[in-house]
Amino acid sequence: MSELPPCPQCKSAYTYEDRGLCVCPECGHEWSKNAATAENAAATADGPKVWKDANGTVLQDGDSVVIVKDLKVRGASGALKVGTKVRNIRLVDGDHDIDCKIDGFGAMQLKSEFVRKAT
After folding, report:
1. What pLDDT band is residue 37 in, cutting at 50, 70 and 90?
2. Whole-prediction pTM
3. Does the first or last residue of the chain, that is N or C, have fewer Cβ atoms within 10 Å of its Cβ?
């Protein structure tokens, strides 16, 4: 029995084959097996993940960034204001892809779409 690829949309491993198509029972997505193998090959050929800021500039570990939008912080009395500078960021995989320490707030995770690289 051949191993079916995971769903390209929701990454579910519970795919099955129906009338020549691969089907995901969790999200209902259907795709051809040929398209899935080509898509997986393209994904592995891309190389390492690249993180970009709100302006599309590539970020790296150790960069300094500036917050471009007021961000409400759960559990804190205030918000992070526009223009707050964050030094020495660390890039991680996940939804919030920047780990950092902010003066007055402490350790925090930010999304790269809400920062720009500091000049």
Report:
1. low
2. 0.59
3. N
